[in-house]
């Protein structure tokens, strides 16, 4: 019997395997290594992983521990074992000692940026433990008067990953800021280029979150020319057309409560908005959350209130959503604790993860960037030996 396996059969078999196994199989022989690193195979493996609904989604959680003020980045399976055990990831910013935040997640790649305002950003695939520091853009390095807003996504038309960088210059005369420039990085060229914008009047909130939905990155922003409250809206940047557009928020009814903040999120595959309001009472601050979903993308009339969390003074922030419908929320102040809230039963599950500066994004394991040739992708750690930790109150 011949031991020859046709390529199409081998590809079909290997495309079903997890990333960890594929990384190990690269050392079997040169032909397997070449096949697994082939861009066509990487795409086939990614598409199969994305279409496999039986796989639990992964959640990447970044937070600063209340113990020794250390930053952590962990990966958890979104199933019945959620947060009981997790993979403690060594993030690329760890060795530099810089604080960082997660800009976005797409097809197994994460975009990270630093907290110190220098505008440093990188792309990171935790599954294969490789990262790429983005080159310096046209902004002056080390200018403390600059602040940046980032967005990350995928352009399916040209099969390329892009990072948007919006720079603002502090205006000390007015106490505000003015738009400096907008630049776009593409992974295929490993370079930045300017984006032409006309009459860009929007300002972004500090450390605003972003959501990549329907080929566009979304942020909550405001128009300073309008009255306080009425000028808040969603700004979207289409990664394919490379243009900005406005999206109106749902028609909130505050009922006299104090509207404190709004954030964008992804719920399933839909654009969602988390509306935060509070009641000032003599003894405490009672927080209410309303989750709105845009049922039909781009249709303002399709905003639908999915559910509300009312009168829970112990909750301080909404991070995101689990596949089972639970809302991931931070309970308490500093430090806060990560909890799951079931909006149907109103039950709370405590996960024993304490800290502050939480970020959360969904994530899938992929081989993206294994074939990278542009730029200088660096490896750290051994990709087949993740540090799996049992949760004992992280």
From TrEMBL:
Report keywords, A-Z. Kelch repeat, Repeat
Ranges where the F-box domain occurs: 1-46
State the source organism's domain of life. Answer: Eukaryota
Q: Does the keyword Protein biosynthesis apply?
A: no
Among the Pfam families in the record, one is: FBA_1
InterPro entries, per database record: F-box-assoc_dom_typ1, F-box-assoc_interact_dom, F-box-like_dom_sf, F-box_dom, Gal_Oxase/kelch_b-propeller, SCF_F-box_component
List the SMART domains: FBOX
What PANTHER family does UniProt report for this protein, alphabetically? BNACNNG10540D PROTEIN, F-BOX DOMAIN-CONTAINING PROTEIN
Name the NCBIfam families on file: F_box_assoc_1
Q: What's this protein's name?
A: F-box domain-containing protein
Q: Which organism is it from?
A: Camellia sinensis (Tea plant)
